[in-house]
Amino acid sequence: MVSLGRIAPVEDSSEGLARLATGGDDAAFEALIRRYQRRVHGFAYQHLHDPDEAQDLAQEIFVRLYRALARYDSARPFEPWFWKLAANVSLNYVRRGVDTPSPESGQGRGGDVQQPEAAGLREALLELEQTSRLALVLHYYSGLSLDEVSAALGMTVAALKSRMHRARASLRRALVEAPA
Is pLDDT of 157 > 50? Predict the structure, then answer.
């Protein structure tokens, strides 16, 4: 029986796992999936606000990861490369015609009744342009640094800060103007 505890520290990193997975190690790819599965599903849900579509998007992200691993440069950090791939897959997923739920549809996590503040925020997020929403979700929900988000979205940190500033201002306006 092989345990992850026996893998050398370098191979326990995302970069090491990606390198092994690129070489055909299915166990390393499964370890990558386990490492990112919850964050990817949460990211997809925060982006789409539909649990079924979020599951589909998360699966598509991992399928695309598997196909793209050969292009990963193991000399560079894995996480910014991965989140760039996830962001691109998300944008393409929405462009292909997968509708995000309308604010009026009332779709929420598991059909639970949501707090009015959360519903208002969800509606305001859905009104943002896709890249702005992705930037906010990657930074605030997925916990990526500004450098990692800028790398994932292919923009400078300054451009990202500007985009996020405008997006937060738009959210504030929408939340202040929302009917009570």
Answer: yes
Ordered by start, the domain boundaries in the chain are 9-100+115-177
Look over the chain and give the mean of its residue pLDDT values, rounded to a whole number.
80
The predicted pLDDT at position 69 comes to 94
- What HEC string does the chain produce? CCCHHHCCHHHHCHHHHHHHHHCCCHHHHHHHHHHHHHHHHHHHHHHHCCHHHHHHHHHHHHHHHHHHHHHCCCCCCHHHHHHHHHHHHHHHHHHCCCCCCCHHHCCCHHHCCCCHHHHHHHHHHHHCCHHHHHHHHHHHHCCCCHHHHHHHHCCCHHHHHHHHHHHHHHHHHHHHHCCC
Residue 3 has pLDDT above 70, yes or no: no
The model carries a pTM of 0.68
Q: Does domain 9-100+115-177 have CATH number 1.10.10.10?
A: yes
